[in-house]
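Continuing the series of single-chain predictions for the mutant panel. This is the parent chain; the variants come on the following pages.
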Amino acid sequence: MRIGFHMSIQGSIDKAVDRALEIGCNTLQIFTRNPRGWIARPLRETEVNDFIEKVRASDIRPVYGHMPYLPNLASPRDDIYMKSIDTLIIELERCKKLGIPYLVTHLGSHLGYGAKLGLERIIRAIDRAFSVTGEDVMLLLENTAGTRNSVGGSLEDLQHIIERSSYPDKIGVCFDTCHAFAAGYDLRTEETIEEIIRKIDESVGLDRLKLVHLNDSRGDLNSHIDRHEHIGLGKIGEMGFRNILRSKLASFPLILETPRDNRRSDLENLVKVFDLAGIKR
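Parent structure:
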């Protein structure tokens, strides 16, 4: 099982590898920069070399980058849209420099202008970015919780983008369990999980699924509430995750983005996952 967390890069990007190894991860996800601003500090050559060497010397694979919070690739506002495309280009280049093969992106909001416009803007943004950066890094589209005006709440949205892009072979999928559950995909029983796996295969294709974000949900099924919870403590629950972790979804790399609070540590969430999967460490 390939399992890890979204890890902090505080201090230096390479320290994320140290933090992952400390708790026994064998994959990880990072922001390559401060995720809450538009300006990215240039990568230092030393941290790039240290990051690459630490990953190479460890069993951590694959490594995933994640787009920062502010970009909105579906935005109808031209100023935000162009800044979002520029950020996507920069992040693809930073991942390339760090030897990171995958970049996860949220799809954004059409701000009430309609899903059709939002999808068109996303496709245009992706194509523009790849035309500038080349195709070294695969972009992973992350499904959303289907919140108001968001794009990507359905597998069909992701399929639409992939099929209409000029770079379909460089676009994959990140399936977030919290988002899927909140969007109406029931992940609690063996039968419904198998049905969702079938839907993934029939829409985007299982070969494009490169990552599962393993998160419980504070919101109910079809609530459209994007709130992550510790594994087993949310509405998907322990039985749901026991079924997820014994399904084909667990054969893909798993990244947890569970809350950072005093109720449960990352290590305790990791232990819970192994327990529900029936794996002895």
